[in-house]
Amino acid sequence: MSHPVDIHVGKKLKQIRTLRRLSQTDVAKRLNLSFQQIQKYETGANRVSASRLWDIADALDVPVSFFFEGIE
What we know:
It contains four helices and no strands. The two termini are 19 Å apart. The chain is mainly alpha-helical.
């Protein structure tokens, strides 16, 4: 079972990716990952490490704090 914070971060990743009109493959290429890994992050199946979150935020041009907005 995924932790609620991992699920929230994944939803925020999907939200910004779709707002930027990027596919999972587009984001994966920017990060030198597979699109499957992006899928796992978005569903919360895999945790995003702090360093990877930093890279994702940089690739999508958002602050790291974006991924924690709205969390209780």
